[in-house]
Amino acid sequence: MIRRRPPEGKARQPCGIVGFEVPMAETSKARNILEEIVWFKAEEIADMRNRQSIQQLSILVGRAPPPRDFIGALRAAMQRMGKPGLIAEVKKASPSRGVLQPDFDAVRIAQAYEAGGAACLSVLTDARYFQGSFQFLADIRAAGVACPLLAKEFIVEAYQLFKARAMGADAALLIAAVLPNTDLAYLLKSAAKLGLQIIVEVHTIAELERVLRLDLGNAMLGINNRNLEDFTVDLGNTRTIMESAAGKEVLQRGLLMAGESGIFAPVDVDFVQKAGCGAILVGESLVKTGDPAAAVRQLLSLS
Ligand SMILES: O=P(O)(O)OC[C@@H](O)[C@@H](O)c1c[nH]c2ccccc12
User: Fold this and answer.
1) Ligand 1 centre and the CA of 260: distance in Å?
2) With 0-12 CB in 10 A as exposed, 13-18 as middle and 19+ as buried, what is 57?
3) Radius of gyration of the chain from Cα atoms?
């Protein structure tokens, strides 16, 4: 688990009236990118809240288009094609890879993914580290894209779920490495009330074991093949986790599992499918190409 807040407070703490600042202690620095991102979320959410209260957001939630069945669309695609349902990710940049697509138009990419045969879309909403935006969700919806949309955000508070639903998201991501089960349980319930489905993301067997103790009524699961502490990607992580007792329980309970990150070619799709995944989440390999529709067809081996 990452530390949710800097143990000794913010990086620069004003001290007295002369603008003197106490530098952060070494032990209080973020240990990895996930901590850094999550620590910044607290400030970002405070800022968002100043501009738009949760009351204002609930009015917008009331007016938002009704949520679509994200998990259902993935299962239907799996049934139709005999291949994992594709969640194609609208992602301009990432902390590990920098800018992936300089000629980035979220709506155009979303439309191309849909035309190519994606079942669902994932839309990065984090601005600072991924150059994403909640506005992309609304723009993609307004452009008439029918695929259900996942808000790809580092969620630590229910406020962000309200924001995601208000902007037209149908599902949202919760990361087990960031959230203890008490928070996951609360956020899963909040999401259900808003009509949002959830992907609970794990990276280790221990996280999966813990997450399986939750009521996952409106949720599916995902295994991130990228280690968010050092950015290494290993597809074998999906197989290792799915071969564990917890992985077998996933299949027994009929929970939908997505293989996430590092999927580049049809052999990778086959690999995670054999491991037990009924869905895949793919960004880099699709968004980097100049023709995202063709990239989707190629990945799914559609002619
Ligand atoms: O671009 P890739 O390697 O295909 O990965 C997509 C997706 O899995 C990745 O963006 C991701 C998985 N979990 C996340 C959590 C936050 C931000 C991003 C992610």
Assistant:
1) 6
2) buried
3) 19
The topology under which CATH files domain 66-299 is: TIM Barrel (3.20.20)
- Token digits for 218? 């409106």
Q: Cα(164)–Cα(157) distance, rounded to whole angstroms?
A: 12
Counting atoms of ligand 1 from 1, which one is nearest the CA of 153? Answer: 16
Whether 12 shows a pLDDT value over 70: the answer reads no
Compute CA 36 distance to the chain's CA centroid, rounded to the nearest angstrom: 17
Cα dihedral sign for 208, 184, 225, 90? positive
3-class secondary-structure state, position 22: strand
Q: What is the pLDDT of residue 25?
A: 73
Domain boundaries, given as residue ranges, for the chain: 12-58, 66-299
For the chain, give the longest Cα–Cα distance: 68
Nearest Cα to Cα of residue 299 among 150, 291, 171: 291
Whole-model pTM: value is 0.95
Q: Which residue has the tokens 């997505």?
A: 258
Kindly give the distance from the C-alpha atom of residue 282 to the centroid of ligand 1, in angstroms, as a whole number.
7
Q: What is the mean pLDDT of residues 109-123?
A: 98
Question: Residue 78 corresponds to which tokens in the numbers above?
Answer: 């799996």
CA-closest residue to ligand 1 atom 5: 261
Cβ atoms within 10 Å of 270's Cβ, excluding its own: 13
Question: For ligand 1, what atom is nearest to the CA of residue 287?
Answer: 1
Query: Residue 18, exposed/middle/buried by CB under 10 A (0-12, 13-18, 19+)?
Result: exposed
Q: pLDDT value at position 253?
A: 98
Nearest to 166 by CA among 138, 206, 202: 138
- Residue 57 contacts residue 163 (beta carbons within 8 Å): yes
Burial (Cβ within 10 Å: 0-12, 13-18, ≥19) of residue 27: exposed
For 47-76, the pLDDT digits (tens) are 999 999 999 999 999 999 999 999 999 999
First-last CA distance in the chain? 43
